[in-house]
Design a protein that fits this description.
The chain has a six-stranded mixed β-barrel. Strands 12-14-18-15-17-16 form a six-stranded mixed barrel. It starts with 9 loop residues before the first helix and ends in a 5-residue tail after the last strand. It is built from 34 helices and 22 strands. It has 950 residues and is of the alpha+beta class.
Length: 950
């Protein structure tokens, strides 16, 4: 370690010794350098991709929902607003006032342009503004100002809006009161979705309309870690409610939903973070820990010849600082290149467009890079300080003989009978003794490698299990259903599925029976006609045994006041009669035996108060709703069981045509002369109310449903026979032979096109002159697959990149154990060679040591790892309905083969390097083929030079 030109001042000496000490540790320092680089890249990539993906999904969900709020209370009060402000689990609160719809100024107010709304600054800035893009101008401040969406402007015929231009609208307050208003356009924005657009007005305008005191719609957002059900339960217990039917609408926050789609939930994210950081910690620390004994011995030698503790500290720290600097620079550079250039190039332009553009989806975050650099360098610094502390606490003699054990005592081995072993057995016996000599190191190193492998396998399980293809595979090959009327479509009803996520029921709608049947409200109408059904049966390739028909009818409900009160208290108060007739048309769906059995099991498992016996026997009907009842209403629902309900059929087609003729007649006497009788069913007892959004609700597909105020009934086949109407096909879920799916798709499209053309010419019933009957639409699974292919491919690339870097980190950790261990024990190998150990025996011994690590890691993987995988399976299946678990057998085999290859390669590499010891010490050669090296003995240290491979 000495040089002929030794400096004569302390700084130069320390610099000189640090450089030369580093030169003797080239292999160890190279491994350590690679560990620092991989650690920084792994943390930056894993968390950069995760944060970027979750944030982009969050913004995408906010824009699709039309607001960043996760809850609302309609008809809210100032008292409720103040209470929400005080709750610690409510992050943000705002309020708005809904004025009414605005139409164009024409003779019949034919076009509905938008809903007119006022929002306070908290609502606009926190909930509404984040859901819009390309916002031009500011929120209205003056009385005459209005802020409109581009969709509303297009309905007004304005394609190139300008600030200050005049906007004339007919604004409705309630159902009947309306006034013509002249506005000044102060700005516009772009929104997504098919629901009616919103026009925002100022608070001064609200005062002019005398609505400043409400009623308010309270908007809020709960803490991201709280799910919908917990938040709703807390709010019902905390807030003072105006009445039993005042509802609190709560959904999961956009961030909660994004995290759930990515990893199942925050719990999994926290556990994954801990596991990954622990893996990176051991990745860096293991290198120094395994080579600590040699560092202590070499630095202890400096201590022996007179170097002070301060000088030794400076020498070692200078070496570590250089490693940190080089590793941080290269790690940062690689991270930036991968996240800024490579991954965006792999994802492609279309994926970025799907996620909202470059401004939303970005993966490189300087603060994550800074944290990763500090974390990895902090680990290296703490580990190096441990070496320094060890040197300063040991005496010179203890430093020279230090081998990593706490106490260097000689252990007296009991005299045993030595069994004769084979050569292989003997080498494996020696290998076992070598690794158990440092039990703590062996155990901790094995656990660290196991954590790295487990993180990689879990990431693969999540990547495959959360793939959207599993959700699409649950969809039918073809879903056929009736379209909404033209009037309903103009209100944005029946087309919500086009802008929703594919995990949402496509037939969930905000439209009611009037909007659905406005153009075809007669009893004979069937969304899927008998003629169309017959033609579909002729198509070769449809598997009718595995297809599902949703059958039933549209009816008018007549129910007792007590029976309808839980669902619509206002309707029950409109009349003094005991029986109340509904204003809209409702749906009755027929259940088969298997569906009734699944309902029975669900009711029994959850101990619900439902009369399923009457339903099964055909004497009762069951109301299904989409989480529409408050806790107080649910109590009323339990009391409503057994209340009478019967149904009236729609008018016959003949009567519907006569009704239209009468309504269009100018003779008022003729308009009133005829009555149109409706057939009535038998009276049924009400079996109860069931919430289909409850956990574990059986998978029973429905036709159009979800509108508050519309009733949806389940009835048995026997019960439906008591309703005087023919059974109709409300929707069809068809399964096709995979090989014939393209042909079936073409045939179905042609048939639907013909059917819709025919219906468009059937204008006899529609109240709007010239408007035909509503048609049929189809959703093809193959089209959905194609639409989401870019999105799914992008997700696989992102999660695959995380998996790859975790695999590299785990494999590097194993390599560190193998190669650093060999480097630290080269004196030991030299002694073994000198007493006669052959290359083959040494190779077997090293292979045995690697095999013991391998077996220990595999043992942990197939015991603790399996337990973790089962836990993840249970957790994810409870969090994501479409999560599909597959045992990662192929991944585990790949890991095993990779570790085995490293083990074999490491032995071969070491055997090649050890050839240098065959040369005479005078001819020399360094430990790992460098041109110069330092060979230490107990008496001297001699510098020799040779050519590599000599």
């Amino acid at each position: 370690m000495f040089h002929k030109n030794i400096p004569n001042n302390n700084k130069d000496i320390i610099r000189f010794l640090a450089k030369n000490f580093s030169g003797t540790k080239k292999v160890r320092n190279t491994i350590l350098f690679c560990s620092v680089v991989i650690g920084i890249v792994a943390i930056t990539m894993v968390f950069g991709i995760s944060f970027g993906k979750i944030q982009a999904e969050e913004i995408k969900l906010i824009r699709e929902n039309g607001a960043a709020s996760s809850g609302r209370i309609e008809d809210g009060t100032e008292e409720q607003y103040a209470k929400l402000k005080q709750l610690d689990y409510i992050k943000q609160v705002g309020k708005s006032i809904f004025v009414g719809e605005a139409t164009d100024i024409s003779k019949n107010n034919e076009k509905t342009i938008c809903n007119v709304v006022w929002a306070d600054s908290e609502s606009w800035n926190n909930f509404l503004r984040p859901a819009y893009t390309n916002v031009i101008g500011n929120y209205p401040q003056k009385k005459e100002e209005i802020l409109l969406s581009e969709r509303a402007l297009k309905k007004l015929g304005i394609s190139e809006p300008e600030q200050g231009m005049e906007i004339n609208l007919d604004v409705y307050k309630g159902v009947f009161e309306h006034s013509k208003e002249k506005f000044e356009l102060c700005g516009w924005y772009t929104d997504s979705g098919n629901e009616l657009a919103i026009g925002y007005i100022s608070h001064d305008k609200i005062k002019e309309l005398k609505l400043e005191k409400g009623p308010y719609t309270l908007l809020f957002s709960q803490s991201d870690h709280l799910n919908r059900s917990k938040t709703e339960e807390k709010l019902y217990q905390t807030l003072p409610m105006k009445s039993a039917d005042q509802k609190i609408y709560v959904s999961d926050t956009a961030q909660y939903t994004a995290v759930s789609k990515f990893a199942g939930g925050y719990e999994m994210v926290i556990l994954g973070t801990i596991g990954i950081l622990c893996g990176i910690y051991f990745l860096v620390r293991n290198v120094l820990w395994i080579s600590m004994s040699e560092d202590v011995q070499n630095l202890g030698l400096l201590h022996t010849i007179g170097a002070t503790e301060r000088q030794i500290t400076k020498i070692y720290r200078k070496q570590m600082r250089l490693l940190m600097l080089k590793g941080s620079v290269l790690g940062s550079l690689i991270s930036a290149v991968i996240l800024v250039l490579i991954i965006p190039e792999l994802l492609g332009f279309h994926f970025y467009q799907e996620m909202g553009g470059n401004t939303i989806l970005s993966f490189f975050r300087p603060w994550i890079l800074l944290i990763s650099v500090l974390f990895v360098n902090g680990i290296l610094w703490i580990a190096s300080e441990g070496v320094i502390r060890k040197i300063t606490t040991l005496s010179c003699v203890e430093s020279a003989t230090y081998d990593g054990n706490k106490l260097n005592r000689k252990i007296k081995h009991p005299v045993e009978m030595v069994l004769k072993r084979s050569e292989i057995g003997e080498m494996f016996y020696i290998a076992w003794g070598n690794i158990t000599r440092h039990k703590a190191r062996f155990i901790i190193t094995s656990i660290s490698i196991f954590l790295g492998v487990l993180s990689f396998i879990l990431m693969n399980v999540l990547t495959n299990g959360c793939d959207y293809k599993h959700l699409l595979e649950k969809r039918p090959d073809f879903l056929l259903a009736g379209e909404f009327s033209e009037f309903g479509k103009s209100q944005g009803c029946g087309e919500e599925y086009k802008t929703r996520e594919i995990d949402v029921d496509p037939l969930l709608t905000q439209g009611d029976g009037v909007e659905l049947l406005y153009d075809n409200d007669y009893d004979e109408f069937s969304p899927i006609s008998q003629e169309l059904e017959k033609k579909l049966h002729k198509i070769d390739g449809i598997d009718w045994e595995n297809s599902n028909l949703i059958e039933g009818a549209y009816v008018t409900t007549v129910m007792s006041k007590k029976g309808i009160r839980p669902y619509d208290e206002g309707l029950s108060d409109l009349t003094n009669d005991n029986m109340v007739e509904g204003f809209s048309w409702d749906t009755v769906q027929i259940l088969n035996e298997n569906q009734i059995l699944s309902l029975k099991k669900y009711v029994q498992d959850n101990q619900l108060n439902i009369d399923l016996k009457s339903l099964e026997e055909g004497n009762g009907v069951l109301i299904i709703h989409d989480h529409m009842l408050t806790p107080e209403q649910q109590k009323l629902a339990d009391e409503a069981i057994g209340e009478p309900v019967y149904f009236k059929t729609l008018l016959s087609r003949e009567d519907a045509i006569r009704r239209k003729e009468q309504s269009n007649s100018e003779n008022k006497e003729k308009q009133q002369e005829d009555e149109f009788p409706q057939k009535e069913s038998e009276t049924f007892p009400l079996c109860g109310y069931l919430d289909r959004q409850s956990d574990d609700f059986p998978e029973i597909h429905q036709s159009w449903h979800g509108r508050e105020g519309s009733l949806y009934y389940f009835i048995s086949e026997k019960g439906f026979q008591k309703i005087p109407t023919e059974k109709k096909i409300l929707a069809m879920e068809l399964t096709a032979d995979p090989e014939k799916e393209p042909y079936v798709k073409t045939q179905i499209s042609e048939l639907i096109s013909e059917e819709n053309k025919k219906r468009s010419e059937m204008t006899e019933v529609s109240m709007d002159e010239g408007t035909g009957e509503a048609g049929v639409f189809v959703i093809c699974k193959s089209d959905l697959m194609q639409q989401k292919e870019t999105y799914m491919r992008g997700n696989r690339i992102l999660l695959g990149a995380i998996s790859i870097i975790l695999f590299i980190a785990g494999l590097t950790n194993y390599c560190n154990v193998v190669f650093t261990g060999m480097y630290a024990r080269r004196k030991e190998f030299d002694i073994m060679k000198s007493i006669g150990m052959t290359d083959k025996q040494m190779k077997l011994m090293l292979f045995g040591e690697g095999s013991y690590y391998f077996m220990c890691v595999m043992g942990l993987l197939f015991t603790a790892g399996v337990v973790v995988l089962v836990g993840v399976k249970i957790y994810m299946e409870n969090k994501l309905s479409y999560f599909t678990f597959h045992w990662p057998i192929q991944i585990a085999v790949c890991v095993m083969l990779s570790f085995a290859a490293v083990n074999i390669y490491g032995n071969s590499r070491l055997l090649f390097r050890l050839q240098i010891y065959r040369y005479d010490k005078d001819n020399g050669g360094d430990d790992y083929g460098n041109k110069k090296y330092y060979f230490e003995t107990s008496h001297r240290k001699r510098n020799v030079t040779r050519r590599a491979g000599r």
